[in-house]
Amino acid sequence: MPDVRLASPRGRWLLFTTVLGSAMAMLDSTVVNVALPRIGRDLDTGLAALQWTVNAYLVTLAGLILLGGSLGDRYGRRRVFVLGVVWFALASLLCGLAPTPGVLIAARALQGVGGALLTPGSLALIQASFHPDDRGRAVGLWSGFGGIGAAVGPFLGGWLVAGPGWRWVFLLNVPLAALCVPVALRHVPESSGGPARGRFDVLGATLGALALALLTYALIEAPSGSPAVVPAAAAGLAVAVAFGYVERRRPDPMLPPDIFASRQFTAVNLVTLCVYAAFGGFFFLVALQLQVVAGYSPLAAGTALLPTTALMLLFSSLPHSRLRSSGGTPIGALADRTGPRLPLTVGPLLCAAALLLMPRVGEGADYATDVLPPLLVLGAGMVTLVAPLTATVLASVDTARAGLASGINNAAARAAGLVAVAALPLVAGMGPEAYRVPAAFDAAFDRAMFLCAGTLVLGAVLAFTLVRRPAPDCPHPECRTHGNVTAPPLEGGRREG
C-alpha cells in the first residue's frame, strides 16, 4: 500500500519533483506561441515553418501520450518519468541550438516524445506513492501548481524573447531538468502496475502519430501548391483507416474501440474536438496578431494573455463543500443541479462571443478597451465548460477506465489543436508570408476568428443535443485547479488504498 505522507519531507520532495517535471511540458504548451514571430524573423522562415514549430510537438505528444502512461505501469513509473524529463531536456537543448527551421522542427517532435513520457508519469507517481488519505490533496496541489505554470507561460515567454532571446524559451528546460532528475532519483519511490499483461500497442501508437503527421503536412503545405500535398493527404487517410483496423483487431489496443460504445463519452469527445480546435487556432494566431498587427512587444503580448488563465485558476480553485463530481467549483455546483448540458452549451457560446470581439484587436489596439474585454469573456467561457467537461468524461465510463477515458479526451484535445493550427491559416487565406505583412495578416485573422467562433457554436449545439446528466455515483475529478488553455486536465486511474 502507498504510504508517503504529504507532510513528510519525502512527500514534499515527491510533490516538488513531479510538479517541476510536469511544469516543463505545461510551460512549453503556452510559452512557444509568443516566441513565433522572433523565431520566424531570426531563422528567415515562412508561416508554414511556424505552424510546424507548434505542430511537430503536438503530433508526437498526442500520438504517444496513451502509450507513455502504459510504459510507466509496465517498466516503473519513476524510471519512465525520469527518462521523459531527460529526453525532454535534451530535445529542448537541441531546439535552443537549432541553426535551421528543419532542425528546430525535428527537435520539437522529439520534445513531444519526452512530453508523452513525463506528463502522465508525473500524475501516476503521485497516485501510486501517496497514502490514500493524502492522495486527493496531493493531486490537487499538483494540478494547482501546474496551472500556475501554464498561466505564467506566456508572460515568461515574452520576457525571455524580449530579453536573452527566443532560444532561452527552450534552454530554460535544461537547468529545470538538472534539478528535477536528482531529486526524483533520491526521493521518489519506484512503483509499477503489477505483473506485465499483454503487449504494448506500439503499432497503434505509430500509426496514430503517422496519420496525424501526414494530414498535418497536407494542410500546412497546401498553400504552397506542392505536388506532395494530395499524396500526403491520401496516405494520411489510409493510415488513419489502418489505425482503426489495428485497434479493432488487437487484444490490448491503445485506443479500445468499445469505449466509444458509451454515447455520452462519444458526445463529450465531439464537444472536446470542437472547443479545443477553436482554442488551439486562437492561441496560435492571437500571439502573432498582437505582435505583427497591434505592434505589441513579446513581453506585452505574453502579459496580455494572462487574464484568461488567471480566471481559470481563480475560479477552478474555489471549493464547494457539497459537490465533488464536477471539480468542487461554483460551476461544478451548477452542473450538479442542472446536469452538464447547460454549462457545456453556455461555455462554448461565451467563448464564441469573445472571439467575435477579437477583430477589434487591430493596428494600434488599446489594451483596456479592445484586448482585455474579449479575453475576460473567453476566460469566463472556459471556466464554465472545462470542469463539467472533465467530470462528464469520467462519468461516461466505468470507474476502472477513468484514467483511460481522461487520456483519450486529453489526446483528442491536443489532436484537435494541431489540426486547427494546420488548417486555419489555409481556410482563412493566409499566405506563406502573411505574418510579415500586417494588413494581410489582420484581414486573415478576422476571418479565422469567425471560423473559430463557428466551431465553438457547433460544439455548443452538440452539447445541447447529445450530452445528458451522468449517474450520481460516477467517478470524480481529482485535478481541481486547471490553467492549461490547450487541453483539459489529465486524470489518472483510481487506485485502491
Structure description:
This protein is an all-alpha fold and 497 residues long. The chain has three domains: 1-190, Up-down Bundle (Growth Hormone, Chain: A), CATH 1.20.1250; 202-253; 258-497, MFS general substrate transporter like domains (Growth Hormone, Chain: A). It has helices spanning 9-42, 47-75, 77-97, 101-129, 132-162, 167-171, 173-187, 202-221, 229-249, 263-292, 298-304, 306-316, 330-338, 341-357, 367-395, 402-428, 438-466.
Brief overview:
By secondary structure, this protein is mainly alpha-helical. It contains 17 helices and no strands. Helix content is 73%, strand content 0%.
Number of helices: 17
What CATH calls the topology of the largest domain is: Growth Hormone, Chain: A
What oligomeric arrangement do these chains adopt?
A: single chain
* Protein structure class: mainly alpha
Mean pLDDT: 87
> How would a crystallographer describe the biggest sheet?
none
**Which radius of gyration do the C-alpha atoms yield?**
21 Å
InterPro entries: EmrB-like (IPR004638), MFS (IPR011701), MFS_dom (IPR020846), MFS_trans_sf (IPR036259)
Membrane topology: Multi-pass membrane protein
Protein name: MFS transporter
Transmembrane segments: 12-36, 48-68, 80-99, 105-126, 138-162, 168-188, 200-220, 226-246, 267-290, 296-315, 342-359, 371-395, 407-428, 448-467
Give the SSE layout:
Layout: H1 9-42, H2 47-75, H3 77-97, H4 101-129, H5 132-162, H6 167-171, H7 173-187, H8 202-221, H9 229-249, H10 263-292, H11 298-304, H12 306-316, H13 330-338, H14 341-357, H15 367-395, H16 402-428, H17 438-466
